[in-house]
Amino acid sequence: MSIVTFRNVGKTFGSRPVLQDVSLDIEEGQVAALIGPSGAGKSTLLRCVNQLERHSAGEISVDGLVIGTHTRSRDLTALRRRVGMVFQSFNLWPHLSALENVMIGPTSILKTPLSQARRQAEHLLDQVGLAAHMAKYPGQLSGGQQQRVAIARALAMEPRVMLFDEATSALDPEMVQEVLGVMERLAAAGTTMLVVTHEMSFARRVADRIIFMADGQIVEDAMPEDFFSAPREARSRAFLERAH
Ligand code: ADP
Ligand code: MG
Question: Which residues form a coiled coil (predicted)?
Fold first, then answer.
């Protein structure tokens, strides 16, 4: 079953097209790595999934909820509950502990009872390896630890799909692996994931599918082994040569 569908989606900023005729089906449990040069439209595509950017043409659907170009805000709220997103910057609340950062969405938006939200948050923080740090504030945590709190915070809303936009790009090199490790475990647990990344070895090992974008279009959509060992398109080959 498809969880995320794009049908002929376009996006323009002013007169500038940044997504052109993008069609895509992401299946339940699938991990798709979105790769491509800077400015290709990867972030815009991801942000259209939860409508942080409204698309200008075509149709997007997430878990059966169809989003056109003029969808009402009530439907956008429903949409955003289905989608978790992790950004390059962690955006945690500085005045809340790690535990409170993970609890705040469920208690304030989903109206989850406090005791249940606390148990769930403790479980999620344990899963991302932060059992010993739950009471700490973001300022007391490393970048890698903060990003793992951000992942737990997104998971606490029980999304149908998780979006990662260069989740490790702002981290010091020694912290990249701990975050990729959490993402790899999520993938192995069957989470549907759309991952924009520059980590080619992670994409090759963890993704079910590589979506290569350039100039606002999907240039190649292939199995990782095929994409990395025998890219079909000249632009894919050029990108991979530069990435090495
Ligand atoms: P990527 O994530 O692949 O680097 P983006 O989706 O961020 O690419 O950007 C695609 C294109 O859209 C770029 O040319 C970028 O400058 C432009 N763009 C992105 N966001 C905006 C915006 N809010 N306003 C105007 N142009 C934008
Ligand atoms: Mg980007």
Answer: none
The rounded Å distance from CA 123 to ligand 1 centre is 37
100-147: per-residue pLDDT in tens?
999 999 999 999 999 999 999 999 999 999 999 999 999 999 999 999
- Of the candidates 111, 110, 134, which has an alpha carbon nearest to the alpha carbon of residue 123? 134
Mean pLDDT, residues 193-207 taken together = 97
Cβ 38 under 6 angstroms from ligand 1 = yes
CA of residue 207 to ligand 2 center, whole Å: 18
Tell me the CB-side half-sphere exposure of residue 223, using CA atoms within 13 A: 3
Q: What is the pTM of this model?
A: 0.96
C-alpha–C-alpha distance, residues 180 and 164, integer Å: 11
Mean pLDDT of the residues in the chain: 96
ipTM attached to this prediction: 0.97
Give pLDDT, residue 46: 97
Pocket test for ligand 1, best of 11, 12, 13, 169 (most atoms within 8 A of CB): 13
Q: Does domain 2-243 have CATH number 1.10.10.10?
A: no
Task: Give the residue extent of every domain in the chain.
Answer: 2-243
**Cβ atoms of 156 and 150 closer than 8 Å:** no
Which listed ligand is nearest to 87 at the C-alpha? 2
